[in-house]
């Protein structure tokens, strides 16, 4: 591979990194706080390639052949991931990632210390609901409250019906862990057995106290009061 082709590939790769930050696709792979670092990496790659071009223009022509021989072969390896991201960007992780987790205990972090938002049915992150439910067997601040949560539909882990799930990431999609709610949904507002997975739903729910236990894998049960299908939020992950 000539130096010109290698540098063109590096510029192309750097430009794709910047592009996925601009169009938001980067949030399929990393948390929002990492996006500026991805963009910065793209800019650095472009700058290094352009710097090499400038050096080539300054180099005497008679020395080019010796310098080019056998250089830059590994740059071709950049094409595969760059083309995948550019032409067939993978979607955010969904029910398949939850299924792979199997019966593993869901990701439960420290319960938020701040009070629940005011209002009749405030929107809360699904991971916050799970953490609060696991911290208080009697439901604590959740007891009797109506809350609005958004997640995607997955097959119920135990028994018929469906659960509502989200994926939580610390850094990037590679470390994603699931959180889920078991739905007490007698009216089938979210969907009964066999309902299509990966549908995004916003649901108004009420916690069933005492259900987020170690025996249940810290998966609380909630009663579904109302539900509607929605578009996938951006970002799709919780943190």
TrEMBL record:
Residues 143-239 form the DUF1980 domain. InterPro entries: DUF1980, DUF1980_C. It holds the Pfam family DUF1980_C. Keywords: Membrane, Transmembrane, Transmembrane helix. It comes from the Bacteria. The chain crosses the membrane at residues 34-54, 75-93. Coiled coil: none annotated. The keyword Membrane applies. This is TIGR03943 family protein. It comes from Actinomycetospora aurantiaca.
């Amino acid at each position: 591979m000539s130096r010109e082709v290698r540098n063109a590939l590096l510029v192309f790769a750097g430009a794709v990194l910047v592009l996925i930050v601009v169009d938001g696709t980067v949030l399929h792979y990393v948390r929002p706080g990492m996006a500026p670092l991805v963009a910065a990496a793209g800019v650095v790659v472009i700058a290094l390639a352009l710097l090499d071009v400038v050096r080539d223009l300054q180099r005497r022509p008679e020395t080019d052949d010796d310098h080019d021989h056998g250089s830059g072969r590994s740059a071709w390896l950049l094409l595969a991931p760059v083309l995948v991201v550019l032409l067939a960007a993978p979607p955010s992780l969904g029910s398949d990632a939850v299924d792979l987790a199997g019966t593993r205990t869901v990701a439960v972090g420290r319960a938020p210390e701040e009070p629940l938002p005011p209002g009749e049915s405030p929107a809360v992150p699904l991971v916050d609901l799970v953490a609060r439910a696991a911290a208080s067997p009697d439901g604590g601040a959740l007891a009797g409250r109506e809350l609005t949560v958004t997640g995607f539909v997955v097959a119920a882990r135990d028994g018929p019906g469906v659960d509502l799930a989200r994926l939580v990431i610390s850094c990037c999609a590679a470390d994603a862990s699931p959180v889920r709610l078991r739905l007490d949904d007698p009216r089938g507002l979210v969907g009964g057995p066999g309902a299509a997975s990966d549908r995004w739903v916003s649901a108004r729910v009420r916690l069933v106290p005492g259900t987020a236990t170690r025996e249940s894998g810290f998966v609380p049960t909630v009663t579904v009061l109302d539900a509607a299908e929605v578009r996938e939020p951006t970002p799709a992950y919780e943190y």
